[in-house]
Amino acid sequence: MATALREAGLPDRVRLPFAFDPAGLADDLALLGDAEWIAHFVPQNYEGEWGALPLRAKAGATHPVMMIYSDPEATEFEDTALLGQLPHIAAVVAAFRCPVRAVRLMRLTPGSVIKEHRDHDLAAEFGMARIHVPIATNPGVEFLVNRAPVAMAPGEAWYLRLSDPHAVANRGESDRIHLVIDVLVDGWLAAQLESGAAGA
Hints:
By secondary structure, this protein is α+β, with helices and mostly antiparallel strands. It contains five helices and 13 strands. It has helices at 2-8, 22-31, 64-68, 87-94, 187-199; strands at 13-15, 38-39, 46-47, 50-58, 77-79, 100-108, 113-117, 128-136, 141-145, 148-149, 158-160, 166-170, 176-184.
């Protein structure tokens, strides 16, 4: 499937043909209360506060950092207890009828910046895709892929080719929180990507 996507010339961003309920997703965020966000483990890639909550992690992982790490070598993943407490978010994850690997909520606080970098294994053409579903955002958030902005609204689902250069800034006054789903590319996902790309 990855070879077919390479031959099709998939763009670096694709809005997938899904629409999830923004209000329901926001309700789930409210259930988090004072949850302790785990600081991202690559501090040289950001300034400010960039953290995560693990919803699906490498099987057997118990250390917080290992639970938010999307290990490319791992083959077994399991849902965390937190996912079971968030029904709307769990329904989004269940909508992806392809092999689901790590799933996290990722928060970028106001004034924080993720510096331009590449995640070399994250491209559908290589067999791995990262999906972003915005839950909380604001007009001051800028997400750049190949230095071109990607405008993503709550409840939308986006594939981004993050093996390309990308960066994020939150210049607003509220948190930016995305549901981030790492998946393997199979026939089902390839069809969604091709459908989304055709409708762009």
